[in-house]
Amino acid sequence: MSLTIYLLLFVSSPLIAEFNHTPELTTLGRVIFLGFFISSFGTAHAAYLFRHLMVKEKTSSQVVASLLSGITGLSAAFLDFGYWSLVVMDLTYKITYTSLVWHYSPWRPSMQIQLKPAFRMFGFSSRILLTNLLNTVNNQLLQSILGHFYVQSQVGQYSQANKWTTMGSSLLTGMVGNVAQPVLSSVNEEKDRQVRIFRKMLRFTALFAMPSLLGLSFVAPEFIYLTIGEKWMPCVPYLQILCVAGAILPINQMFSNLLISKGHSDSYLIGTGTFLACQLTAVLLLYPYGIQPLLYTITALNLLWLAIWQWLAQRLVKLSLWQTLKDILPFTVLTLTALFAAYWAALPLEHPLLKISVKIFTTGIAYATLLQLCHVQIWRECLDFLLEKIRRKPRL
C-alpha cells in the first residue's frame, strides 16, 4: 500500500509543483514522499512495542531519531542546503526511527498470512486508519495551500516554525501516548479506576507540556537566532503562536486515546475529521489576511477542540469539564508565573546566549519551586520515582 501511495505521489509531483507555481517541488516532492515508503517498514514493529508496553524502547527510538534528525537538519542548514535541509531532517528521522523499532522488536515478518484477525478488527481499525490518513493528507494539503497563496519565503518560515513545534509536541505526545492507550484499555471494565488513571495521566501531561511548549515560545527569539541563524528570525512570531497550540496537542491526544480505549474509533474519526474541516475552512477564508491571523485561528481551534474532546469523553465516562480544567489550569498558571519571573530576570541582558541561559534557568527553578510550595502531588510522585531510580542504580 505504501509503495502504491508513493507511486501516486511521484506521478502527482509535477501537478503539485504547478499548483504552487514552484517547479522545484517536482524533485523535492519525489524525494520527501519516500518517507511514506520508508515508514511502512516500521509500522508493525512500532505496533508490537506499543502492544507489549515496551515504552522505554519506543521512547528511546523517538528521542534518538528526533535528536539525530535535528542535528542532521541543522548541519544541512549551516551548509546552505536551503529547503533541502528540511527534507534531510524528515528522511533522517524516518530512517532512524524505523531502524530502531526493528532493532528493539523481536517480531519479524514471515510468509504466513492470516486474514481472519484483520477481518475481525476491520471496522475498528479501518476508522483509525482513515483518521490517520486524514491527518496526513491534511498536513500535506495545508502546506500545499499555504504554498499556493503565499510567497516561498513566508512558507519556508512557517515550515521552520512548525518543525520545531511538532518536534517538541510529538515527543511529549509519544512519551505519554505509548503508555496511555494500553493502560486505559486494560482497565476498561473498571470505570471509576479508569477515570482516576486518566486524570493522573492528564496532570502528568500538563506538568511537562505547559513549561516545555510555552517555554519554547518564550525563548523563541534567542533559540532561533542561536540554532539556525538570523535569516530565520521572521519565523519567531509563527513559532510563538504555534507553541501555544502545541501545548494543547498532547492533552487533546490523551482524550483521543481514551476514546479509542473505549472502542469508540467512530467518535475519534468524527472529532478529528470535523476539526480538520474547520481548519481547512479557516485557511480558505483567512488567507488574504496573512499567516499570523491564520495561525491565531488554528490555535483558537485547538483550544476549542479541547472542550469538544472532553464533551465526547464525558458521554462515556464520568469526567466533567470542571475536573478537566482543574487538572490542566494549575500547571498553566504556574508556568506563566515562572515565565514572568524569568522575563524580568533576563530583561537587562542583551547577549542571546546569556539571555536564553538565564531564561531557561530561572524558569526551571521558579517552576520547580512553585510546584513544591503548592504541594503538587504529581510533582512529588515524579520526584519520588526519580529518587528511587537513583538509589537503585548500581554503584561501580
Automatic annotation (TrEMBL):
Coiled coil: none annotated. The chain crosses the membrane at residues 27-50, 62-84, 204-226, 238-260, 267-287, 293-312, 324-345, 365-387. It holds the Pfam family Polysacc_synt_3. The keyword Transmembrane applies. One of its GO terms (cellular component) is plasma membrane. InterPro entries: Poly_Biosynth_Transport (IPR050833). Its main location: membrane. Keywords: Cell membrane, Membrane, Transmembrane, Transmembrane helix. It is a multi-pass membrane protein. It is found in: Cell membrane. Belongs to the polysaccharide synthase family. This is Lipopolysaccharide biosynthesis protein. It comes from gut metagenome.
